[in-house]
Each structure stands twice: as structure tokens, then as C-alpha cells.
């Protein structure tokens, strides 16, 4: 490296510090010695160097990076795709179904709190409201996910399952949710509790999972982790979602909604909605 | 070293060309099932009427650029973070400030409200994501109970609690995303694949699986399996950094906002970009996007200080909202869809309805 005179103040030991820093740059590949490339050090002589992006760093990073990209692309090619027209029909259906439930699109009754400064809308639609509105109950029939997402909808469904003697399915599903999204420290205890209550032979609230899934789940319990019940949970979820009970439950929602409306009217409200 | 170098270069070159060829094949496969454009199908849908949305609340109190905000599940509280290191919790209905904490770093780029409403998470140039329990004891110092959860090797750009207070998902300038156990700070899963800074993420409203989408400076939007850490789908059609990603309410698609001045819609089942929301007159980057409750409207905040409201199905702009006096940096629709909040470099937040 040819020395250059720079018009700056002289700092004691600066040359040593510079050499040290320079050596680090060479060792990490930012400066590449053109002669004798095996000696990774900065020498105060006429040795030429080339400045480059760190060779070692880029090599590892890039090889791994492209390997991952290739794997991801291979997986993507193996996916089943759906026709665009089918996907767009789904948007139209979702949009028309949910439009009346979208306060910005359709307004909300009695009023939008932000516009009128009256928070009655929030009081009426509190998470655990005793008498949910017609619009809210209507949404429980849109999809199983939306039913379970509403605490009142879920409680109502639990009651319904209780009458059908299959409430353990929903309780099991809830326990699995707790496992998946809960703290790591509780995983072993939670897995054991779920096993005792729902999966063990003769368990008090035994859930009806197909034998293959049950076998795989029980085998996995020896090494409990937060995803160990995923397959069983998915099975029970689909059982509830597509079960005979759903049709009966959804049909009953109209009556349910009317009952809630009557109870709201009974408390002196002049708005029946 | 010379012999090793050659070997490395061969593997690298062949991987690179394999990736290019696979990308080409993927584009061909994606094109095969694209039988119609969204705006064509949307011709059957009634056009939206006149749109009146105004600023209903202005939250003043930050001393510098507002960088991020998130709503509380109670539909009225929200948390916001700023370049000056301050994180504020507001009851935005009354505009009262309920909590405030000063972070040890400036540029708090990410903040999130816990599902229980009892804690907030935030971070930025400190490369960490920290959780603060919210206490109503006036004598207690919020900063005292701070818990450091996530540790990245570069700035924190986004964070979100998953379905509970116990897990946090983070995105970072170090090019990775990560899932953390809040109590122990343990890294549960990391997500590698972006080729540059990750700027945003959003969790899918999924039924049985657990996925999320991230966007980055590599112009890619990537969908991840939270269990395996693998990328399941990737989309590379933007021409610049992706600043914001948000799922369509059904979970079947997501929207993105980018420095290339466009917002785009990607369908996960069709596995392709299905709409572009842009106008020749819009030349500044979109910093943040969110859907109205039914997914019919897409609100997008831009670096030209405006908010554009897009008809998601027809692809047209429905409205343009003025009010902020500097870049809009963050935007979220409230949990019950009655309003949306925007944060800006003009130091304020606005709630619109």
C-alpha cells in the first residue's frame, strides 16, 4: 500500500492503530491482498490490495440464501393453484356479505361513536353483551372462524354442543389454542393436562379423533412442544365445522336473534335491531 | 484458498441459475390459471357512492415524527411511538394520554398493543423488542417493569403479539423475522429468506394454520409457516421497498404498500398479484395500508402527506384525504372498523371516520 501524506494532525500511535484496523479489514475480506493472498494482514509496504465486499461473508450468506430460495421456489411450484375467477367470486361474496357489517361502508346503529361522540354503539356491542344485536348474530353464520372469534358466539355454540353431548370437542380445541399461543414454560404441564382430560384411554372428556391421528399424537406427547397437538386440533376443528350439528345450529340462529331482540326490548329499549 | 473459492463459485453460480429458471417456471404456472382480471369481475358490483370521512380526533403530544401505532382491542385505546423515543398510550376517544414511557433509544419504529390490553411492546434502533406492562398505579414507573424480549442484530422495524400476550413476532433490518416467548425471551422460531431489511409483517386471520406475511427492502413479500420457519409463498412484483403488508379480512389475500408509489393485492390461492392500485399523479411512496372491515376499501397513507381510499374490487380511487402536514408513516383501521387512525411525521395522529 503506497503511503499517502494526509494534511491532518499527527496522532501518536495512529500508524499502529491504522495497521491494526487495516488488518482486520483484510482478515474479514474487505481488502484482498493481490500478492500472497494466504497472508491476511495489512503490511506497510508496496503490496497492492483490492477493495471488495467481504468475500467470506458474501459466500456463506449467498450460498445459503440461494439454497433457501431454490427450496422455496420448488415448494411453490408444487402448490395447487386456484383459478383467478374462483378467487374473485370469493371476494365478491365476502364483500357483499360483510358490507352491511362494515361501519365505514354502511354506517352503524345507533351511531358511529367517532362521529356523534356517543359510545352507545360500543356498549351495545361489548365483547360479553348479554343480548347481542341482530347484525352480530348474523355474522356467526358467515363462517366457523367468525363464530369462534366472537366470545358470545363461542359461548352460545358451547351451550349448543352441550345439548348434543359433544362440548368436549370445543373445550379440547380451546385447550389446544392455549398450548399453541401460550408461554413456553407451561407447555409440559398443559400437554399433560390435555392428555389426562381428553386423550387418555377412558378420559373423562375423551375426544373422538381418527385412530391414525390419535396414534401419531400420542407418540408425539413423549416430546411435548407447542405444536404437538396441531394435527389433533385440526381434525377436531374440521369435525365441528363440517359436522351435522352446524346446520342445525345455524338454522337456529334466527330464533336466537329474535329472542335476544325481545330481551333487549324487555329492558325498555325503544330500538329493536 | 483459491481451490475452495472456485468450488464455492461453482455452487453459487449453479444455484443462482437454478433459482432463475425456477422463477421462470413459477411465472408460467401462475399465468395458466389467470383467466380474468379482478376489475372485469367487479363490473357486476355497484359503484361506491360519495365518500365523506373527516378527522374526528387529533392526538397531539409527540415531540417528533410519529413512526408507528396500534389499536387496543377495546376499540378506543391506542399506542403510538415516535422518533424522539417516546411511546404514548392514549384513550383516543377522549384524547387523554394514559401512559407514557421514554425509550433509551430514538427512532421507536415499532409498537404493538397486547391482546389483553394489559401491556405494550415497542422497539427500534435499540435492535430489541421490549414489553411494558401497563399499570394504573400512578406511583409506579412504567419503565421499571420493562422486559427485553427480542434481540436482533439490526433495527426493529415491526412487531406484533400473536393470539396472546405470551408470544411476539418481530421483523428487523437484519433481514430476518422471529417469534419469541415473552416470559423467557426465548427464540421460538426464526425466518430467513429476505435478501435485505424486513420492514413490515402481518399475521394471517387463519382458521387452522399459523402463517404470516412480511415485506422488505428486497421488494419481496413472503408468506411464512410459523411452525417450520419455512417460506411457503413469495411474490416479487413491486419495484421498490415494501413498507407495509396487511391481510384481506378473509385471509385469502393481502395488500402491500411500496416506495414504488403503488399498492398491490396478492391472492394466496391464485398465488399471484391480482390488482395494482396506482395513478400517474401518485408519485410518492405508500408507507402503510389497511382494509376496512368488509375488505371493500383499502386505506393507504403516502409520503406526499395524503391518504388515498381505494375500491379494492374495482381498482379505482374513491377518495383522497388531506390533513396531515407531513408524511403519513402509519395507518390502522380500528378493531371494529368504525374508524381508522393515521400517524405522521407532523408529530400528530388523526382518527378518521
From TrEMBL, chain A:
A biological process from GO: negative regulation of signal transduction
> Which segments constitute the RGS domain?
143-241
Which keywords describe this protein according to UniProt?
Signal transduction inhibitor
Alphabetical GO CC annotations of the entry are: cytoplasm; neuron projection; plasma membrane
Q: Which residues form a coiled coil?
A: none
Q: Which organism is it from?
A: Ovis ammon polii
Q: Which InterPro entries match?
A: G-protein_gamma-like_dom (IPR015898), GGL_sf (IPR036284), RGS (IPR016137), RGS6/7/9/11 (IPR047016), RGS_sf (IPR036305), RGS_subdomain_2 (IPR044926), WH-like_DNA-bd_sf (IPR036388)
The UniProt entry, under PROSITE patterns, shows: RGS
Looking at the UniProt entry, the stretches that span the membrane are none
Task: Please give one Pfam family short name.
Answer: G-gamma
**Molecular function as annotated in GO:** GTPase activator activity
Q: What is this protein called?
A: RGS domain-containing protein
TrEMBL record, chain B:
Q: Which PANTHER family match?
A: GUANINE NUCLEOTIDE-BINDING PROTEIN BETA G PROTEIN BETA (PTHR19850)
A single GO BP? signal transduction
Name the species this protein comes from: Ovis ammon polii
Q: Which domain of life is it from?
A: Eukaryota
What the protein does comes down to:
Enhances GTPase-activating protein (GAP) activity of regulator of G protein signaling (RGS) proteins, such as RGS7 and RGS9, hence involved in the termination of the signaling initiated by the G protein coupled receptors (GPCRs) by accelerating the GTP hydrolysis on the G-alpha subunits, thereby promoting their inactivation. Increases RGS7 GTPase-activating protein (GAP) activity, thereby regulating mood and cognition. Increases RGS9 GTPase-activating protein (GAP) activity, hence contributes to the deactivation of G protein signaling initiated by D(2) dopamine receptors.
Keyword Transmembrane in annotation = no
PROSITE patterns given in the database record: WD_REPEATS_1, WD_REPEATS_2, WD_REPEATS_REGION
User: Subunit notes for this chain?
Assistant: Component of a complex composed of RGS9 (isoform RGS9-1), GNB5 and RGS9BP; within this complex, the presence of GNB5 stabilizes both itself and RGS9 and increases RGS9 GTPase-activating protein (GAP) activity. Interacts with RGS7, forming the RGS7-GNB5 complex; within this complex, the presence of GNB5 increases RGS7 GTPase-activating protein (GAP) activity. Interacts with GPR158; promotes the GTPase activator activity of the RGS7-GNB5 complex in absence of glycine, in contrast GTPase activator activity of the RGS7-GNB5 complex is inhibited in presence of glycine. Interacts with RGS6.
Where would one find coiled-coil regions in this protein? 9-39
Q: What family does this chain come from, according to its entry?
A: Belongs to the WD repeat G protein beta family.
Task: Alphabetically list the UniProt keywords.
Answer: Coiled coil, Repeat, Transducer, WD repeat
WD repeats sit at 59-91, 149-190, 191-234, 235-276, 288-320, 321-353
- Keyword Repeat annotated: yes
Name the chain's protein: Guanine nucleotide-binding protein subunit beta-5
